[in-house]
Design brief:
The chain has a seven-stranded mixed β-sheet with strand order 15-27-26-25-16-23-24, with helices on both faces. A six-stranded antiparallel β-sheet has the order 7-6-8-14-9-12, with no helix packed on it. Strands 17-22-21-20-19-18 form a six-stranded antiparallel β-sheet. The longest helix is centred in the first third of the chain and has 38 residues, at 89-126. With 729 residues, it is of the alpha+beta class. The protein folds into five domains: 8-87, Alpha-Beta Plaits (2-Layer Sandwich), CATH 3.30.70.100; 96-230 and 337-407 and 672-728, no CATH class; 237-330, Calcium-transporting ATPase, cytoplasmic transduction domain A (Distorted Sandwich), CATH 2.70.150; 419-445 and 553-665, Rossmann fold (3-Layer(aba) Sandwich), CATH 3.40.50.1000; 447-550, Calcium-transporting ATPase, cytoplasmic domain N (3-Layer(aba) Sandwich). It is built from 27 helices and 27 strands. This is Copper-translocating P-type ATPase.
Length: 729
């Protein structure tokens, strides 16, 4: 009977004739594994992307539509020595918890055995071994073997299994030299004990496993903490929503069955499953994990809400603008996945070094053994030295040097409101020494505000807001939102390009252009903000002027001051009118600015700065900013930016504040510093340790402690990247 596999449920359309699937892969522990998997899968014809996320052991695959069966990827991974299956968040979390518990059990067994074997070794160490009776010495050795052999067989499973899969696939990984070293040390110790030799190395083998398990457990838990951020986002996703299928009838349906334009009911205590706009009701919503706002936001008619937001008090009717994978939450999740899977220049360097290291380790150990035998040493002493070389030269520290910093830094930057969208964004961001800001939607908020609302009588402002509800113009929407209007005026008529008019109690109301409302004289006599759009309101003969504009981001002045303190050059390049750009630049204290510039002008300015040796960070949000974002040394966009700009930018920041711009620079500089430190630590360790081990003065026990200590030192140093977000925000 032929069994078929259907993975269509897990495959999604990535656009432009490309399909995407995520696979969970067991046994991925190091940079060498990542490189092997990516090379093996990329070799399949028509595969356009194969990227491993070491943080959650997931591989993202993309290929040309209609050319490949996803089952082929699972078969190829099996050939490479890895078991794979479609990635699902819940099953991945269950597997992760199970693996963590297994590692902890292995560590407990190894640590218990280490303590007991070391206690049995004390009598041998404390006296002259040659003076001990052979029966006494053999007794301690056999007792050590009785403890160490079963303990190593159980505790060494994470390494033995991984090494066996690699060898079965006719390749190597970092666990191969570890497994060979442990097995050689144990096997040689058994032989030595049988022949009544003075020394055995059960303590070295079991202590090596203990040190390695400590390092692997710490590494996994560090990744789990970072992955918890993604888990929190996944937990925000509601799987169903209450959809209106009639005027007063609702049905609980899957999110996949909801389309833009549908109306859903959002009750108190529920998480919103869609992006949309409130059309009825009033409540407070918590959208802190989506937009970065920590205070509850009042939700009423016209208020945008996002998937993942928590409704606190009232009941809301929401008109859907996006659902399922098109929501802002889904976009943030995809960007976070990119951040955790991003591959920096330093990581690629470490990958190549780790890939070459495994065969070099084996060759070095073999040459050491043969060299000592040729020099006249016994096979026993030569093998002991070879085992020490095999253990001490394992490239674990080098393999962890960059990925650990990348993982911790990505988590720290996310907490500061920044998501990576490019592999080498951290290095390039750290190098930035000149920032170019777009103005509209970047230095200013994307939402329009009525700046002089306090100057308008409350009853007049309420009428203007109600009349504004009948218009689709964004300026009218801002007036309606600011006035808190809930019900439109019946019979209102919108005149295209002019405004809205209606009659209430025999009095004509108008909202729109000053000429449409007969308020031209008020515009000429008023001192108005140069950035503002002017909208007039008339009630009979009473005329009023409303000033509507995008306000500066709340912390824009502080951010500009912080950039200046870091000796970073700043300028504004905007396509907006000169008075508006001048006012913003003056308010922020930015002396260099240009207004009315085209996308080509922005690129020309970036190239000019490049010629001077500047590393330009471009921060923009509009579709017309995409070319200059691509041309800059590194680029950044707010999450509210046009889709093309978000896709082009190297980093994306969340929320209304501009602080993530500074946060990203500080975090990137610290991460780059730690990456370089870790590389030098790993390289320096091997430069010092290998010659010492080859010289024969290092025992397997000391080699185990040195190798594990270097890995733990690298991981602890990487954790310093977490402090960056605390120092910035």
């Amino acid at each position: 009977m032929q069994v078929t596999r259907d993975f269509s449920h897990y495959v999604r359309d990535a656009g432009e004739g490309v399909r995407h699937i995520d696979l969970a892969v067991e046994g991925v522990h190091c940079a060498g594994c990542m490189a092997k998997i990516e090379r093996g899968l990329s070799a399949i014809p028509d595969v356009t992307l194969a990227r491993v996320n070491l943080t959650d052991r997931r591989v993202a695959l993309e290929w040309k539509a209609g050319t490949l069966d996803p089952g082929r990827f699972i078969d190829r991974l099996e050939e490479l020595g890895y078991k794979a299956y479609p990635f699902e968040t819940e099953s991945a979390e269950v597997a992760e918890v199970a693996e963590s518990r297994f590692l902890l059990r292995c560590l407990g067994v190894a640590a218990f055995a280490t303590m007991n074997v070391m206690m049995l070794s004390i009598p041998v160490w404390s006296g002259n071994v040659s003076d001990m009776l052979p029966e006494q010495r053999d007794f301690f050795h056999w007792l050590s073997a009785l403890i160490a052999l079963p303990a190593a067989a159980y505790a060494g499973q994470p390494f033995f299994r991984s090494a066996w899969r690699a060898l079965a696939a006719k390749t190597t990984n970092m666990d191969v030299p570890i497994s060979i070293g442990v097995i050689l040390a144990l096997g040689m110790s058994v032989v030595e004990t049988i022949h009544h030799a003075e020394h055995a190395y059960f303590d070295a083998a079991i202590m090596l496993l203990t040190f390695l398990l400590v390092g692997r457990f710490l590494d996994q838990n560090m990744r789990r903490r970072t992955r918890a951020v993604a888990g929190n986002l996944a937990a925000l996703k509601a799987e169903t929503a209450a959809k209106f299928i009639g005027p007063d009838e609702i049905s609980q349906v899957p999110v996949a069955a909801i389309n833009p334009g549908d109306i859903v009911l959002l009750r108190p205590g529920e998480r919103c499953a869609v992006d949309g706009t409130v059309i009825e009701g009033r409540s407070e919503i918590d959208q802190s994990l989506i937009t970065g706002e920590t205070l509850y936001v009042t939700a009423e008619h016209g208020t945008p809400v996002y998937a993942g937001s928590m409704n606190i008090s009232g009941t809301l009717r929401v008109r859907v603008s996006a659902a399922s994978e098109a929501t802002l939450l889904a976009e943030i999740t995809r960007l976070l996945d990119n951040a955790l899977a991003a591959r920096s220049r330093y990581m690629r360097l470490a990958d190549r070094a780790s890939r070459l290291y495994a065969p070099v380790v084996h060759a070095t150990a073999l040459i050491t053994i043969l060299g000592w035998v040729i020099a006249g040493a016994s096979w026993h002493d030569a093998i002991v030295t070879g085992v020490a070389v095999l253990i001490i030269t394992c490239p674990c520290a080098l393999g962890l040097a960059i990925p650990t910093v990348q993982t911790v830094a990505s988590g720290a930057m996310f907490k500061a409101g920044v998501l990576l969208n490019a592999g080498d964004a951290i290095e390039r961001r750290a190098e930035a020494d000149h920032v170019i800001f777009d103005k509209t939607g970047t230095l200013t908020l994307p939402d329009l505000e009525v700046m002089n609302a306090a100057d308008i009588p409350a009853d007049i402002f309420e009428l203007a807001g109600r009349l504004a509800l009948s218009s689709h113009h964004p300026v009218a929407a801002a007036v309606a939102l600011a006035a808190g209007a809930k019900s439109p005026i019946v019979g209102a008529v919108e005149e295209a390009g002019q405004g809205v008019r209606a009659t209430v109690d025999g009095v004509e109301l108008r909202l729109g252009r000053p000429s449409f409302c007969g308020a031209e004289t008020l515009v000429g006599g008023a001192t108005l903000d140069p950035e503002a759009s002017i909208v007039a309101f008339s009630k009979g003969t009473a005329k009023f002027i409303l000033s509507v504009r995008q306000g500066l981001r709340p912390d824009a002045r502080a951010v500009i001051a912080a950039l200046k303190m870091r000796d970073i050059g700043i300028e504004i390049l905007s396509g907006d009118r000169e008075p508006a750009v001048r006012a913003a630049a003056h308010a922020l204290g930015i002396p260099e600015w240009r207004a009315g510039v085209t996308p080509a002008d922005k690129i020309a300015r970036i190239e000019e700065l490049k010629q001077r040796g500047a590393k330009v960070l471009m921060v923009g949000d509009g579709m017309n900013d995409a070319p200059s974002l691509a041309a800059a040394h590194v680029s950044m966009s707010p999450i509210s930016a046009a889709h093309l700009s978000r896709a082009t930018a190297d980093l994306v920041f969340l929320g209304r504040p501009l602080a993530p711009v500074v946060a990203a620079i500080d975090a990137a500089r610290k991460a780059l510093h730690l990456m370089r430190q870790n590389l030098w630590l790993a390289i320096g360790y091997n430069v010092l340790a290998v010659p010492v081990a080859i010289s024969g003065v290092v025992t397997p026990l000391i080699a185990a402690a040195a190798m594990s200590g270097s890995s733990i030192l690298v991981m602890l140093n990487s954790l310093r990247a977490r402090s960056a977000s605390r120092e910035i925000v």
